[in-house]
Amino acid sequence: MLEKFVKNRKGLDYYPPLVAIIGIFVLGAIISMVFLKQYPLAAQFSLGREPLRLFHTYATADKALAFVDESASIALERSAYISGKSGFYDSTPSCGSRDGLNLWSIGSMESDCTFPLTTCYPGESGAASQFKSNFESALGELVKTFNAKGPVIVNGKPVVLPDSYNLKLQPVPGRTEITGTADKPLVIAYGVTNPLKYEVKAGFRVDLPFDLLTNRKAIVDTAQQAAGKLENDARDVINSADGVGGLDWKEDFNLERIGSICLHDVGTCSCCQDEQECNKFDKDGFCVEWGDWVTVPAGDGTVVEKLPFDIITAPMSVKVDGAGGSHARFFIYDDASGKVSGRDMTYEFSLSWMEPHPEDAQTACECSSGYQC
Question: Is 192 helix (H, G, I), strand (E, B) or coil?
Answer without folding.
Answer: coil
